[in-house]
Design brief:
By secondary structure, the protein is an alpha+beta fold. The chain has 8 helices and 8 strands. It folds into 2 domains: about 230 residues, no CATH class; about 90 residues, no CATH class. α1 packs antiparallel against α2, α2 runs antiparallel to α4 and α2 runs parallel beside α6.
Length: about 350
């Protein structure tokens, strides 16, 4: 590490944290203005507003804006170095362009690891406090999936509930079917099913059970029965931000569980899983593009560099959203949808690096 390395790293990190701090302050001001009435009405204390809400609020937005402001930081201070002929002096001293790129890549690696840690470990933890605060003082976070619910609860076991009331955890017109090699051998039907939180079991009322063995069938009926079924009330109402509360391993287990249940949102969950790796990696790509674009001194100065850079950034974001939509609602593989923008823009980054002034 040379003095020039420390100089560039200091400039990079200083510009990044200053710019992202300013945007977070602006976001907090707008959030306060939007929620101040609810906070006053529900008598939230200043301590809880600061420590339970906004301190848990900040990591999410740092991670959300990290790739964009990494790019802006690189564009801004590198353009400034170019306009002050510092880059010419560096290259003229015998340091190659690729050697000059080293401190940029070291800083990008640090920001990539920071983003990966935030999105996969810290933010799921801070979001729990954030969501609890919002539930208590701002809004209900539950989305009830309460009509015509179909799910697979185990291999060969399927349930259907016509409607489910989350207020009293009661489902009506319940059916459960079990299959062996595609052949139905067990069918239970009941007027309603109720979750008993003390026994942690389901109570089934006015039920009939059909046991089928080839051409023979046995019917069992009853008024009430407690039973253990491989499902919980969480399967009937999904917290609106559940994915944000899961770290990487929890999300992986959740996706396996949802696949077993036959969820129609599997692709959405897989896109979220792959984004948690691909998004931090985009920091490297945007850093290379930023250095390549802004290292040349132009007549328009920093403004032209920022305009070029922002145009590429918005194209990247738009392309990412398009591919994610095709993965969620079409036939495109989630891993391809999430990584193809990175692969494409990595090619653009390497081309811009090749033609950058040496």
């Amino acid at each position: 590490m040379k003095k020039i390395d420390y100089y560039i790293i200091k400039k990079f990190l200083g510009t990044f944290f200053l710019s992202i701090s300013l945007i977070i302050i602006i976001v907090i001001i707008f959030d306060i203005s939007e929620n101040i009435e609810d906070l006053i009405n529900f008598k939230a204390t200043l301590y809880r507003i600061i420590f339970d809400y906004y301190l848990n609020f900040i990591p999410y937005f740092v991670n959300l804006f990290s790739p964009l402001f990494t790019f802006i930081a690189v564009i801004y201070f590198t353009s400034k170095m170019a306009s002050q002929t510092e880059i010419i002096a560096i290259l003229g001293s015998g340091i190659s362009f690729r050697r000059m790129l080293r401190p940029f890549m070291i800083t990008a690696l640090f920001l990539t690891l920071l983003s990966f840690y935030l999105s996969n470990f810290l933010i799921p933890h801070t979001n729990k406090n954030l969501v609890d605060f919002r539930t208590e003082f701002l809004k209900n976070r539950f989305q009830n999936n309460n009509r015509n619910i179909h799910m697979q609860i185990a291999p060969g076991a399927f349930v259907y509930v016509e409607s489910f009331n989350v207020e009293d955890n009661r489902g009506s017109r319940f059916t459960m079917e079990r299959y062996n090699n595609g052949v139905l051998y067990y069918k239970m039907a009941a007027n309603n099913i109720i979750w008993d939180s003390l026994k942690e079991k389901w109570t089934i009322n006015n039920y009939s059970i059909h046991l089928i063995n080839g051409l023979t069938e046995k019917l069992i009926t009853g008024n009430k029965m407690d039973t253990s079924i491989n499902m919980t009330t969480d399967d009937f109402y999904r917290k609106s931000d559940d994915l944000d509360l899961m770290n990487f391993s929890q999300l992986h287990r959740f996706i396996k569980s949802e696949k077993l249940k036959g969820s129609d949102k599997i692709k959405y969950y897989e896109v979220e899983q792959h984004k948690r790796i691909a998004s931090p990696f985009s920091t490297f790509i945007l850093t290379i593009i930023g250095v390549s674009v802004s290292s040349r001194k132009l007549r328009g100065g920093i403004g032209v560099h920022i305009a070029y850079g922002l145009a590429l950034t918005f194209i990247y974001i738009l392309f990412s959203r398009i591919t994610e939509t095709f993965a969620t609602y079409g036939n495109l593989s989630p891993v391809v949808a999430v990584w193809i923008p990175n692969v494409l823009f990595m090619g653009i980054a390497l081309y811009l690096l090749k033609i950058a002034p040496k």
